[in-house]
Amino acid sequence: MPDVPERPEDGVSRVLCFVAHPDDIDFGAAGTVAQWTAAGVVVEYCIMTDGDAGGFSDEHRPDIVDRRRQEQRAAARLVGVETVHFLGYRDGYLEPSLELVAGVVELIRSVRPHIVLSMHPERNWERIQKSHPDHLACGEAVTRAIYPAVENPYAFPDLAARGLDAYRVPWLWFFGGPTQLENHFVDVTDHVEDKMRALRFHASQHPDLERMDNTVRAFLTANAQRGGLAADRSAEVFQVVPVNTEATIAGF
User: Fold this and answer.
1) Nearest to 43 by CA among 84, 86, 81
2) Given this model, what pLDDT does residue 5 score?
3) CATH number, domain at 102?
4) Is residue 86 part of a domain?
5) What is the pLDDT of residue 55?
6) How far is CA 182 from CA 74, 144, 149, 235, in A?
7) Is the peptide bond before 148 cis (omega within 30 degrees of 0)?
8) What is the end-to-end Cα distance of the chain in Å, rounded?
9) Where are the beta strands (DSSP E) in the chain?
10) pLDDT given for residue 252 in this prediction
C-alpha cells in the first residue's frame, strides 16, 4: 500500500461524503468533518437511501423517512455542514447499479471535491455490523465512479453535454473497512463532543442513548491507541487512497 502523507487533508477546501443511511457519517466521521469545517473546509453529504428500514419503534413508521432526514440535517448543521443530498433509494435494497454510479459521478463532477469520503466496499469480519450490505454497495458504487468514470471525458456523455466535465479526484477516504487496511488516524479529541451531539440527533435509531454514547467513546479511544496516539486522545480512522496525486500515474 502506498505511504500516505502525515496530513493528506492539507490544502483541501472541498469534501464530499457518501454514506448509505442517515447517521452513518456521524458514526464514522463526524469528528473529522467538524475539524474540517472549523478550518474553513466546505463539506457536503450525500445520503443514498431513505432510511425507511431503520428505527426501533412502531410509532416512528408513518414518518420515518422525513424524521430521519430532519435528524440528519440537524446533525450536519451541528458539525458545520449545510448541504445534504438525499438520493432516496430504498433502505436495505441498495446495489452498485449503473444508475447509482451515474448519480455519484454527476454529484462528484458538480461539487469537484479534493477528498471524496465513503463507506468501505470491503467487508469487516471483525465486526460485521460495520458491513451492512448497503454500506458495501455505497463503497462499491463510489469506487466505480471514482475510477474511471468521473475522470473519463467519454463516460456518461450526457453529463458532459450538461456542462459536468470530467474531473480527477485527488483523494478517496474510506471508513468502516477491514482493520488491516487502515492507514490514517485523525485525532478528533477536540471535536468528540460535537460528534456525540450530532449522534444524539438520530434519536429514532437509539433506544439507549447512554449506551450508544459510551460505546462510541470507547471505540474512539481504542482507535487512538491503535494509531499510537497518547492515552487521553480520541481518533477516527480511515483508509486513505491516493487517486490523482504525486504518488499516482494518470491513466493507470
Assistant:
1) 81
2) 61
3) 3.40.50.10320
4) yes
5) 76
6) 29, 20, 25, 12
7) yes
8) 15
9) 14-19, 42-49, 83-89, 115-119, 171-175, 184-187, 235-242
10) 47
Distance CA 76, CA 20 (A): 15
Residues 125/178, Cβ–Cβ less than 8 Å: yes
Domain count, the chain: 1
pLDDT of residue 8: 66
Are 235 and 229 within 8 A, CB to CB?
yes
Nearest to 181 by CA among 144, 147, 131, 218: 131
Q: What is the pTM of this model?
A: 0.94
Burial (CB < 10 A; 0-12, 13-18, 19+), residue 153, is: exposed
Is 245 a member of any domain? no
pLDDT at 3: 61
User: How long is the chain?
Assistant: 252
The residue segments making up the domain with residue 222 are 14-240
Is there a contact between 94 and 49 (Cβ–Cβ < 8 Å)?
A: yes
Regions of the chain short of the pLDDT cut 70:
1-8, 59, 249-252
